[in-house]
Amino acid sequence: MATPAKMVRQFDQELEGLKNNLLRMASLAENAVQKSVVSVTERNSDLAREVITDDINLNRMELAIEDQAFKLLALRQPLATDLRFIVAAMRIATELERIGDQAVNIAERALELNSREPLELPIDLRVMADLALGMVRTSIEAFVLQDPKLALQVCQRDVEVDILDDEYIQKILDAMIAESRWVTRLHHFIIIVRNLERIADLATNICEDIVFIVEGKVIRHTGAGDGSL
After folding, report:
1. How many domains, in total, are found in the chain?
2. Inside any domain, residue 228
3. The pTM is what?
4. Which long-range CB contacts under 8 A does 137-145 form with residues at least 24 apart?
5. Which domain holds residue 25?
6. Which of 1, 98, 137, 204 is the most buried (most CB within 10 A)?
7. pLDDT, tens digit, 9 for 90 and up, residues 8-44
8. How far apart are the first and last CA of the chain?
9. Domain-embedded: residue 113
């Protein structure tokens, strides 16, 4: 029969395993976004196909993390911070899987765009991509450090992406009016901009989960992203 001390050590190891799986999944999601953006900006269709093919790994990891979390809840009956961590881990895995889905959407648009003649964009897609990717990276760092202040910084940066989203969409619409023959291709870029904005939103959701883990506060829909927490 296992001693209480041994059971505690085993539980800690299982929590660490869950955390490590989340970190591996986060790395896959970040790489998927990075590759998808490059597939557009550098017209690299091989990278786009790689993102689409590799998405199955993110889907499998989400299911594995969910299964791991449910077993911990059922068998260990955790309390307080550990309980919040396990519940949030399932939500974070879902957000990471959705980030991967957005990367796939971008990659699919890249394949369409790369099969046509390039056009001169009225926007710099890399600026928005760097912002969104930076938010994803910082959300992962905040998770590793269990740092709610760092997490809140990501929530606040979401406003920058929203402003850029509005600006870019308007510029693309203006370009559509000026060059009607580009409408179909420019529409693909509208979708890509929306995908990047959604990635930033998902990174924000992860950071809200981090605040929940560390402080037990639910800040979704409370305006915390504008510093009002």
Report:
1. 1
2. no
3. 0.90
4. 137/30, 138/203, 138/207, 139/203, 139/204, 139/206, 139/207, 139/210, 140/23, 140/26, 140/27, 140/30, 140/206, 142/207, 142/210, 143/22, 143/23, 143/26, 143/92, 143/206, 143/210, 144/23
5. 8-215
6. 204
7. 778 888 889 999 999 999 999 999 999 999 999 999 9
8. 47
9. yes
